[in-house]
Amino acid sequence: MTVTMTIDCMGGDHGPSVTVPAAVRFVQFNDDVELVLVGQEAAIAAQLSKLRADGHPRLSVVNATEVVAMDDSVETALRKKKDSSMRVALNLVKEARAQACISAGNTGALMAVSRYVLKTLPGIERPAIATVLPNQLGGYTTVLDLGANVDCEASHLLQFAEMGHALVAAVDGKERPSIGLLNIGEEVIKGNDVIKQAGELLRASTLNFYGNVEGNDIYKGTTDIVVCDGFVGNVALKTSEGLAQMLGDMIKEEFSRAWWTKLMAIFAMPVLNRFKHRVDHRRYNGAALLGLRALVIKSHGSADAFAFEWAIKRGYDAVRNGVLDRLSRAMDENQTQLQETKPMPAIPAL
Amino acid sequence: MTVTMTIDCMGGDHGPSVTVPAAVRFVQFNDDVELVLVGQEAAIAAQLSKLRADGHPRLSVVNATEVVAMDDSVETALRKKKDSSMRVALNLVKEARAQACISAGNTGALMAVSRYVLKTLPGIERPAIATVLPNQLGGYTTVLDLGANVDCEASHLLQFAEMGHALVAAVDGKERPSIGLLNIGEEVIKGNDVIKQAGELLRASTLNFYGNVEGNDIYKGTTDIVVCDGFVGNVALKTSEGLAQMLGDMIKEEFSRAWWTKLMAIFAMPVLNRFKHRVDHRRYNGAALLGLRALVIKSHGSADAFAFEWAIKRGYDAVRNGVLDRLSRAMDENQTQLQETKPMPAIPAL
Fold it and tell me: Are the C-beta atoms of residues B283 and B138 closer than 8 Å to each other?
């Protein structure tokens, strides 16, 4: 099976200078992949020729005249830039000419345009953004939502759990991945009303619900999946980025303080490099927009080519593992269950 | 001026074996401090004699027969354990026999008993928990609330900002510390309704409001103070703890992988130790319960003696810098302003 994906080449802080090299490398290393490069033809062609990849049989270019800027409002992206690389890339997926779209464009715009173009799966009220973070067990924890939904009801959190379940079950082959509800304590009585209700819904569901988890459990790997509302998830993610950045900078600073610390850095280099590789956040780039009728992967806006390649890989894995099918099936089953358990309509009093 | 503080010696995961050595060290290094050790007399005496500190002129012991366990409910702590070390230590502060209380006891119980015994300052609806986290500027960022309030209205977030302002102005001598509102984007339109309203209140206030900040800004040091609701703050803090723990463990693992990596660790030791010292979370131990009629400092439950000493130091700094006075004055001014700007009562229709 060939996996065909569209690349929004103009998205992100760096545009084609990052997205095109990543795409070229990815097709070179994966024989069963075709990539459609969407964006301003001339800019893409220039990159391709620089990389001597023009005419690659599994790379094609589709022109799109407009670009959604990183600070464009949802309104602008949706109503004013109908020929943006983002929109055209999503349209190709909608027309079934590709199975997934990868974009480093601005999150709000990407979510809005994706919803508009692709629509949500039946039974999904709110799509969510899911990503993976490394954990102490040497694996990773899937966390959602990371910012698509700032105000959630308990039923939304349940849906996020169901979507996370479908994603992890498909991609990692774990039939019953465990699910934690992000809270401020393990006890059932902790948290606000929405969280407590979500806990009840999750306990009553057929999912493998572990219970409440706390922020540190994301990195401990206590559960395969951690569910939270988009506000909390976004803060947890950004806080982690900030802390990792600070610690990384401090290590560098300490090792470059004087000639003798620089000497030590040389000695310690192989070990430091292994450590750096293990925690390299670029390897965790690529968040899935879940709940749409097609697969969309959002890359970090500041991604470099190596990081963007990981986002492409996430799309590739999702397509190959049938994430969308699995998600649709899970939602279908839910709908059926809901209908089956629906109470008999009361006979109206005459 | 002598600073007198009570120590809840039974609180925390380790009780007197941590709290008493920390207290002894602290009085030995600070001539202007008197500490009242509260808890089970025999247990405290045993520790004191082990440290040859029995009879120290600036250490006294007050007996309390009960202990609030780390998993006791608020109900139990409040209604059933009236002779707990926590309660007795707070009572002594209430009776003005000490100026602050330091406890590593469970957060929920400590907040509830503190509120019950000490009461809140006039004008404060909700006390908040504030702590400091290191930032890239080499200083630290004060963050509140960290878990006292899981459901906040905009006016509560404004009060947290006012309390944070009073704390930082007093302790750090910054007259107009900058305040950031934790959000999921910098733009004014981001976030949920409560956050948007809080932003409006902060912009209209006399505080030095910077605007919205994101999770990474805590560690960047973008503002002196970051304000958020207790749910979000707690998740940010715990997530940071989890990430720091994971990274620390990974560095250790990499350096102890083989004989040659162990050798490298020896070479790199001085640098790694400096780094470890800089990011040592124990130096940031001690969160202030703000908004009460007296000072209460909450230490991490798992603190060791070194960390607990830092919590005592935080209490000491707060007392010496007149944090409580500053807070009361700020709240008084607010009250006056509120009264002055109150609209004329409407003449009731007859």
Answer: no
